[in-house]
């Protein structure tokens, strides 16, 4: 599965944002690994510097994959991915589609969120936004 991420709203207290992904496999005996475009294991999807022009143009995209291996006991060899918020989501009732920055760092970006999409290019063609 490849998913695209981009930052939403506009103002941030810092130039960097990251997304930490924690995987839990509940059925079978799979091992799930988060990997980058080069298939290297990672634990954080690092956006680096994020500029307002990139946010407005929806061009700040980081692609990652969840790689499953050594799977046994999964019906039809298909895994169902469920996103779970670990911090608040965007929106007035914390029910928005974007995942708010859950960092506890003093200089963390604020008023920003990350969206997760099913394709490398968000909001186009057959792209589906993955929500909580």
TrEMBL record:
GO CC terms in record: pilus
InterPro entries xrefs: Adhesion_dom_fimbrial_sf, Adhesion_dom_sf
Signal peptide extent: none
Gene3D superfamilies associated with the record: Fimbrial-type adhesion domain (2.60.40.1090)
GO BP terms, alphabetized: cell adhesion
Protein name: Putative fimbrial-like adhesin protein
Organism, as annotated: Escherichia coli
Encoding gene, per UniProt annotation: yadL
